[in-house]
Amino acid sequence: MVKQAKALPQRLMEPKKRHRLTHGEGSFYYREKDSRWVGTIEAGTNEDGKRRRIVVTHKDEDRAWDKLTEKRKVLITQGRAAALTGSATVSTWCKRWLKIQESRLRPSSYAGAASYVKQWIIPQVGKVNIEDVTADHVRKVARAVIDKGRSTTTAATVQGVFQKILRDALIEGYQVAQAPMELPRPKKQDTRGRTAIPLEQCWQFVRYADQAPRGSRWLLAFLQGMRPAEVLGLTWDAVDFNAGTIDVSWQLKKLPYKVARDPASGFRYPDGYEARHLEMSYHLVRPKSSAGHRVIPLIPWMSEHLRAWKNASPKSSHDLVYTRADGKPEIDKADTKAWKRVQDELGLWKSAGDPPTYWDAYEIRHSTATLLLDAKVDPEIVKAIMGHSDIAVTAGYQHVNMEMMRLALEAVREKLQSPEPRPLLTA
Predict the structure, then answer these.
(1) What does the DSSP 8-state code read for residue 357?
(2) Which of 109, 173, 341, 415 has the fewest beta carbons under 10 Å from its own?
(3) Region of residue 289 (left: phi > 0; alpha: psi -120 to 50; beta: else)
(4) pLDDT tens digits, residue range 254-295?
(5) What angle do CA 37, 43, 49 make, to 5 degrees?
(6) Beta strand extents in 71-153 (DSSP E only)
(7) Which DSSP symbol is given to 240?
């Protein structure tokens, strides 16, 4: 009869604090099925590009850790530290790089990087050894983007991601040449042609919103300079009618599941990412920069519209200001379609045609910034209102106060020749 080892209590199955490896270096854990401590370290790749992993085990935790430490010393001596300094293709390293970035990048940034890697970088140079990458390989990737009819802005972005991948490979121990990392990017161009909406059209949009049941949604963009995700993520507790302020604290975003199309897998939250789950994949997330989290004045004309909308709006279990008719979070695509319908109804487009070219919702915000500057508002105040990311390092930032911002936004209202508030149409 074989005597089974007695399982350790849960607290003893956790490795000691000094027995921890950094993310991506390997693992150290207790294997309950045979009552042994297991340590693994990454040791590069073989000639086929497959990962090499060194494994050590021992019944005693300290002895297992000592064995693992000795193996790490040998690898370091060989110039092949656990951080993958062995031979690897661009494809192999890119895939591992993406795994590392899952806990570092915001979901939208990660999705973009993953798309560039899979669509451009790996198809063009994936079979090249990471240590053999030259400036010509980087140019090849950028050229492929342009040859497919994409803009130089996209090419520059893809090249930037590739160069970031190479720099991180260097940090991890690969012998990557400096030249490909220093290659200048293609000159960016504003391919979206994002411009300010002409004043006459802004005035007509505002007149429309003034009379529409849900018009306050567009007024928040025109008169308060809020981003689409900020408007859709606005909650009633962030609107202080008494103080006359709006706390722009959250944005409405859809976050990806850890496993695609599998809600049971949970959501992927990068390290330090603050988010509040609402329902389905919808979350309220903090702005990317500290400057994006701001308190802005609620001008009286805007306040009256929001009060009216609060009485007529669908009730939301999440306290959202703007929702679908059933109170569920608004879909960003539906919001975009609604903005296009406004333009169709008024016959006001960026350019007429079949189909017409529409103003996008971000161009409303661009128009607000332009109107502020046209009204001779101090650029520091503009940055404070708009939540620009460079505000924190701006010398005059500390001198921006609520009253100055309020006067600035009133100047926008006057610039738009906004009529006096009147009762909204019933929903």
Answers:
(1) B
(2) 341
(3) beta
(4) 988 888 788 888 888 887 888 999 999 999 999 877 666 889
(5) 130
(6) none
(7) E
Q: Which residues contact residue 182 at a Cβ distance below 8 angstroms, ignoring those fewer than 6 apart?
A: none
Q: What DSSP letter does each residue of 162-183 carry, written as one string?
A: HHHHHHHHHHHT----SHHHHP
Amino acid at 278: L
The predicted model scores a pTM of 0.65
Tell me: pLDDT of 120 over 90.
yes
Query: Average pLDDT for residues 102-107, to the nearest whole number?
Result: 87
Q: Which residue has the tokens 């620009």?
A: 388
What is the average per-residue pLDDT within 192-202? 80
The more confidently predicted of residues 72 and 80 is 72
DSSP state of 352: -
Q: Which two tokens stand for residue 147?
A: 């040859």
Task: Give how far Cα 159 sits from Cα of 28, 90, 152, 171, 330, Å.
Answer: 36, 14, 10, 19, 35
pLDDT digits (tens, 9 = 90+) for 131-163: 899 999 999 999 999 999 888 989 999 999 999
pLDDT per position as a tens digit, 330-379: 988 999 999 999 999 999 999 998 899 999 988 998 888 888 888 888 88
Which DSSP state fits 132? G
Contacts of 287 (CB under 8 A, 6+ apart): 230, 248, 249, 250, 251, 293, 387
Reduced to 3 states (helix: H, G, I; strand: E, B; else coil), residue 58 is strand
Q: Which amino acid is at 99?
A: K
- Other beta carbons within 10 Å of 125: 23
Quote the CA–CA distance of 182 and 87 in Å, as a whole number: 22
- CB contact at 8 A, 380 and 172: no
d(CA 334, CA 217) in angstroms, rounded, equals 13
Q: Is 252 exposed, middle or buried (0-12, 13-18, 19+ CB in 10 A)?
A: buried
Strands in 59-153 per DSSP E: none
Give how far Cα 136 sits from Cα of 124, 153, 181, 183, Å.
Answer: 11, 19, 11, 9
